[in-house]
Amino acid sequence: MENYGFFKVAAAVPEVKVADCEFNTKQILEMLVEADKQGVGVVCFPELSITAYSCGDLFFQETLVKAAEKAVEDLLEATKKLSICFIIGAPVKENAKLYNCGLVCQEGRILGIVPKAYLPNYAEFYEERWFNAFRSEDRNYLQEDFPVISYAGEIAPFGTNILFGWEERTFAIEICEDVWSVIPPSSYHASNRAQLLFNLSASPELIGKQQYVKSLLSQQSARCHAAYVYAAAGFGESSTDLVYAGNAYIYENGKLLGESERFSFQKQLIITEIDFDLLTSERKKNTSFISRPDIHNYKEVTLSLNHKERISFSRPVNPSPFIPVTDAYDESCEEIFSIQVAGLAKRLVHTGVKSLVLGVSGGLDSTLALLVCAKTVDKLRLPREMIYGITMPGFGTSERTYANAVQLMKFLGVTMMEINITAACNQHFKDIGHDPSVHDITYENTQARERTQILMDMANQLNGIVIGTGDMSELALGWATYNGDHMSMYGVNSGIPKTLVRHLVKWVAETQINEASAKTSLSDILDTPVSPELLPADEQGRMTQFTEDVVGPYELHDFFLFYTLRYGFSPGKIFFLAQHAFRNLYDNQMILKWMEVFFRRFFSQQFKRSCMPDGPKVGSVNLSPRGDWRMPSDASVQLWLKEIESILP
Length: 649
Description:
It contains 20 helices and 20 strands. It is an alpha/beta fold. It folds into two domains: about 10-310, Nitrilase/N-carbamoyl-D-aminoacid amidohydrolase; about 325-645, Rossmann fold (3-Layer(aba) Sandwich), CATH 3.40.50.620. About 50% of the residues are buried. The model has no long low-confidence stretch (mean pLDDT about 95).
């Protein structure tokens, strides 16, 4: 089974009893067996999970330290037949010093022992009372003389600078306070190729602390372009002075993938898949990410993980990656809209023009552009009358879209003009010898170019600029007439994909508009099928041309666009993700059909993007040839099509 870079990890929060190593080991073993059944490759347990973290001065007792070592021996013996790799916490004595350590184990062996680098010794923490700190910069060992110690019947490398890897995948670990330090060990680990970071923790609860911890982990994950798995001690730790809530989090490049239930009295296993391909893509593109394997001499330990045979995919895949997440929806929509407004405002102030000219069709794109124009002049304290909304009925204009365009312009108080293009187009057909009964590409593009000519010339008359209304999805597919609706002086929607346009218009209608009639018009615009309205309407004045019947569903194309540009994923991986995202909407054949259309059009239509007008970038994906996307206009698509052909027999 192809996993497309996904790898299953887990953060485990077992129940513990303070200083009861036998009980704690039994809990760990039960969770290991369950994690192994679920196909987890690596699972991380909390700090000092063998003894419990809150043993206090009992760490001075040889009885406890020896019992912990014996418990690790027993756990190794019990897991010889399990292929899962696991990380547990235990006190380890070396050269008469006691260290707070993370042990990386697999198939009955200890593969490495990583001591804690930074020991908290403030407020409620007294770790320096019991343990010694270990920092690799104080011990710059070479590979050949890297220290090894004997523990629990095993000989294992001992130090903070150890990388554990398999098949070009690498992970490393740090312990609790380490990530709170000025330069966490995980920063060095990431600079030395670690893509996956584990943290064994035992951080007690304080009011407001959880959000700070989540912010800290999210930022470290994002800064390191890594996955970060955090497992903290939970129920059963001593509550003499403190409470441990059992916080477990899994982040990927700053995004939270999974978290535990806080203050649960039951053990918890948080499982998800992390995407190594995504992390590799981020590091490859980001020139600020510094790969420095020479910073410290790292010991490399090889694991055997049969993850290709074991993974079952459970991670949810968002079918609308461009749409803001629910808990930040309003804030994100406002920010996107504000970026559009700020971009247009700068262009308006810089040029000193006296008018903004745009075609208003009653469709989604021109509606959003008109709303942006209105907000821009409001913020600049300029009259809305300087906005010239021009409706240009043609052969395919429906009564529905025409009425919505007129109603919206009246409500916004812009200067409204109507110029019918039918006569001009018929004259042009006569001039070039085209039969107007032949509804081909010439028939359609004549109308688009006539409308653009009107807008450009009106802008000249009015000392203004033409505001482009086309969106990023149309640019990706080349669904625009070259030197027609493809062209403007400033494209306010050029960074907005079609799926997001709809949400922004809806957000404006719900949060910025109070008048009932305007809300009704915007609601009807939202319900209107996407159409260029270039083919004649029917006898009842209704549209007969529907864009998605020709190029395919925009929700699929936006999905393909996001993963192609944002992470450079292959068609095979995008198809794998699409299967999970759209499992109840499209079958495999339908996904592949439109994926082929997407790649064919995306490659063949680059020439339109190579000379696209200026416009603001609003998200992580953009098609500007001056910014994010610089592609030859004559590049071959054959590699991508060949992979699509090979996906299904």
